[in-house]
């Protein structure tokens, strides 16, 4: 009888506020919309439109950039505890950051003839380590090792107009850097130099969209949109220098 009485006297958890629960699930739905932009990128890939595929991958990148801060703000793990948004995010990221870019490299001949499948396979397999790495993030919120952002790699190939052999060499090096604990910036999470980093991110995003949107086959982007072109490279240089400094500063101090 005492056991029955104690069971009856256990407090019943208070129901979660419906508005909070709805907000948490709305953020999950926003994250899930990234798979739709990925599908549209695949449709553009099949249609042979690299420019449109990159624009849809850009939309997926925007979703991925904002869903994390939104999830933390509405406390999704507290108000939607049965659904793991982090796993959802990783699944969509592997699709839009790795699988689709690997297919773009194969489909549009961005590497030498005969290297399309090996390059795509190399990208997809090395990226598995990144997505399975429990120490993907450093204590100061940088990525440890190349974070498998192959969508950006294809974007740089497109804007720079680099040749197949150079592209293949870059792919080979970046795949190796997946396993090297250099620091790669997460523009929305790092605390050090946060304001200039966010400003550089905004400049880079605006310049990138304009360059891809304005691009015309056979015409140099430096001539089509010179301001956006140089803003793109200047902001890219900022990120490169920031990553190099944060990666090697301890060694320099020693």
TrEMBL record:
<comment type="similarity">
    <text>Belongs to the CDP-alcohol phosphatidyltransferase class-I family.</text>
</comment>
<keyword id="KW-0997">Cell inner membrane</keyword>
<feature type="transmembrane region" description="Helical">
    <location>
        <begin position="197"/>
        <end position="216"/>
    </location>
</feature>
<feature type="transmembrane region" description="Helical">
    <location>
        <begin position="91"/>
        <end position="109"/>
    </location>
</feature>
<dbReference type="InterPro" id="IPR043130">
    <property type="entry name" value="CDP-OH_PTrfase_TM_dom"/>
</dbReference>
<dbReference type="GO" id="GO:0050520">
    <property type="term" value="F:phosphatidylcholine synthase activity"/>
</dbReference>
<protein>
    <recommendedName>
        <fullName>Phosphatidylcholine synthase</fullName>
        <ecNumber>2.7.8.24</ecNumber>
    </recommendedName>
</protein>
<feature type="transmembrane region" description="Helical">
    <location>
        <begin position="21"/>
        <end position="47"/>
    </location>
</feature>
<feature type="transmembrane region" description="Helical">
    <location>
        <begin position="53"/>
        <end position="70"/>
    </location>
</feature>
<comment type="function">
    <text>Condenses choline with CDP-diglyceride to produce phosphatidylcholine and CMP.</text>
</comment>
<keyword id="KW-0464">Manganese</keyword>
<keyword id="KW-0808">Transferase</keyword>
<dbReference type="InterPro" id="IPR026027">
    <property type="entry name" value="PcS"/>
</dbReference>
<keyword id="KW-1133">Transmembrane helix</keyword>
<keyword id="KW-1208">Phospholipid metabolism</keyword>
<keyword id="KW-0443">Lipid metabolism</keyword>
<keyword id="KW-0812">Transmembrane</keyword>
<feature type="transmembrane region" description="Helical">
    <location>
        <begin position="115"/>
        <end position="132"/>
    </location>
</feature>
<keyword id="KW-0472">Membrane</keyword>
<dbReference type="GO" id="GO:0005886">
    <property type="term" value="C:plasma membrane"/>
</dbReference>
<feature type="transmembrane region" description="Helical">
    <location>
        <begin position="165"/>
        <end position="185"/>
    </location>
</feature>
<dbReference type="GO" id="GO:0008654">
    <property type="term" value="P:phospholipid biosynthetic process"/>
</dbReference>
<keyword id="KW-0444">Lipid biosynthesis</keyword>
<keyword id="KW-0594">Phospholipid biosynthesis</keyword>
<keyword id="KW-1003">Cell membrane</keyword>
<feature type="transmembrane region" description="Helical">
    <location>
        <begin position="228"/>
        <end position="248"/>
    </location>
</feature>
């Amino acid at each position: 009888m005492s056991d029955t009485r104690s069971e009856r006297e256990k407090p019943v958890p208070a129901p979660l506020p419906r508005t909070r629960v709805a907000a948490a699930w709305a953020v999950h739905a926003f994250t899930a919309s990234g798979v739709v932009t990925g599908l549209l990128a695949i449709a553009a890939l099949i249609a042979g439109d690299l420019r449109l595929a990159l624009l849809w991958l850009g939309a997926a990148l925007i979703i991925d950039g904002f869903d994390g801060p939104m999830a933390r703000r509405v406390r999704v793990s507290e108000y939607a505890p049965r659904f793991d948004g982090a796993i959802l995010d990783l699944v969509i990221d592997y699709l839009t950051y790795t699988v689709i870019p690997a297919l773009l490299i194969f489909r549009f001949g961005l590497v030498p003839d005969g290297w399309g499948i090996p390059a795509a396979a190399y990208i997809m397999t090395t990226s598995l380590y990144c997505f399975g790495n429990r120490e993907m993030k450093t204590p100061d919120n940088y990525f440890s090792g190349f974070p498998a952002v192959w969508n950006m790699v294809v974007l740089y190939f497109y804007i720079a107009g680099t040749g197949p052999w150079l592209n293949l060499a870059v792919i080979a090096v970046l795949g190796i850097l997946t396993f090297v604990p250099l620091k790669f910036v997460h523009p929305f999470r790092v605390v050090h130099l946060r304001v200039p980093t966010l400003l550089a991110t905004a400049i880079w995003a605006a310049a990138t969209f304009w360059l891809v949107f304005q691009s015309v086959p056979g015409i140099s982007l430096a001539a089509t949109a010179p301001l956006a072109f140089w803003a793109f490279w200047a902001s890219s240089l900022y990120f490169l220098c920031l990553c190099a400094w944060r990666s090697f500063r301890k060694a320099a101090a020693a």
